[in-house]
Amino acid sequence: MKQKHRKILLFALACLAGLILVFLLICLNPVAVPVTVDYDDPESLFQLAERTEQYILRTTEKGSPARQAALKELEDIALLDVSMDEKARLIRTRFPEESFWTDDMKSLLKAAEAGDPEAQFQLGCLYLPDWTPFWDNGVDSERGKCVVKSYVVAGKWFRRAALQGHAKAQNRLAYCLRIAIHPVSKNLFAVGAGGRKIAERDEREWVYKAVANRDPLVLQLGGFSGENSADIERHREEGLALTRKAAEEGHPKAMLHLADNVRVLGGERTKWLRRAAELGFVDAMVRYADACDYRAKNAEPAATDENGTAPGDGNADREEAKQWRRKALEIALKRLDEGSMEELYHWVRSPACLEHPDDYLGGEDKKEFAARMLKRFSELFDRNPADYNSFFFGSAALVRLLDPAGNISDLYRILDPAGDIADLNRRFMEAAGYGMQERLAEMMLNGGSFPQDKPEAVRLLRKLAGFGLATARERLGECYLNGDGVPRDDAEGIKWLRLAAEQGEPSAIRELRDRLWKSGPWLWPEALRWSVRAVIFPDYDSLAEYGLAKLKDLWDSIRK
Length: 560
What we know:
Layout: H1 2-28, H2 45-59, H3 65-79, H4 84-94, H5 103-113, H6 117-127, H7 151-162, H8 167-178, H9 188-212, H10 216-221, H11 229-248, H12 252-261, H13 267-278, H14 282-298, E1 302-303, E2 309-310, H15 314-337, H16 342-348, H17 351-355, H18 366-383, H19 388-402, H20 409-415, H21 421-431, H22 434-446, H23 454-466, H24 470-482, H25 490-502, H26 506-519, H27 524-536, H28 541-559
């Protein structure tokens, strides 16, 4: 019996020693988390750099020495070995965005900085991306054409107005927080449990105020912490009722939002799509045409008025779909002449519109049409590189109209048959937003449907990593470790992986841990620390499970 008690005591002591060892491993080499939650000015360096690059593109002439020098200077700031705060100071000092604003906008900014809540609300609305589905801003969007859009900056101004009791600002702030546009939302893993609780408490506070204000968009989002499913459903239904009221008053964005949220595929949804289509929205026209086709294929009843329905007629529905697509194309081409690619982008991105293009092109050969539109897209892109999304994906669809087997690499040859692929790559990289640059860097590393240019991809990743983008840091680390686009350098690769892991990037933690484990026993303690961290902060179930499994493997190896 005494021997049994001795074994139990030894086992307990071993467990205690193990816990002490884990504690010492964490405390003796703590993971630095350079994340500050500052709700008064939540803009991160990465977002500041992204907006600054767009500012440079909008205020300098394409291909000019001044533009190239400014972009090079911004990239040099990214590569400096200084603190993030110092990089932000350098960017703001060198590239003051407000310097090119109109006098009207400067007056609005001055009033907002002086504490006027209505001016703060207006300014926040002008920073919101144009597609944001609000219909009661009461804001002249033309006034803010000179503003580089940013959810984060919009949220800053909404917060200042909301703290003064401005109801619409409270609603807008709640919406931004609810769709995860939060000062720390991209990296809640990194700030630890305390930071996450602060962020979640802050979100709930403003969401509940928006609920009290009866804001339809926030009400429809549902999922409020601490409420049961019946409360969530009640809020959603109430939100739909308010959205329906706005739609009935003639707000087209409310109509589209209602069409996306109603829970029937027939008359209710198609009614609102048609109402928005009748107001000239190309996106609504294309979607309503798709609804007509769906009705024809499934013999679904067609809406005839506010209350009744009539049996669907397959031939009539198909013809109606064609008519709406023709009308959508007419409006899209008209808007293209006015300088907007967005409407034609919606049209060419619709598979149904391109399935039988001869039905809509008025006799013009589809290849001639596609080539003509690509040239027009290219001209508009040169004038407004900020509309990269419409250009890139719209052009990709037009390339497929030229050749169903075509891909985005064919776009280069079409736009500039004699051009150098590397130069064309740089042209598109310059215009792409930072998020798209990371995506395109990955495409350039892999090749395939996109021209391969590994050195250019690494250059982009170094810039993005220098401004603190965790995923870019992880990918750059992998490039160094694998010798992909740069000479292999294990120390440099581990450095970038550590930086990404310290920001809480789950895949970076996993990759770093594996690399450390394979590098030799002397690095097992650090690998163990990352395994422990994955368990302590189980934000992702798969990562937590992986961390537990790897922790067991590491302990087993150390014990041997």
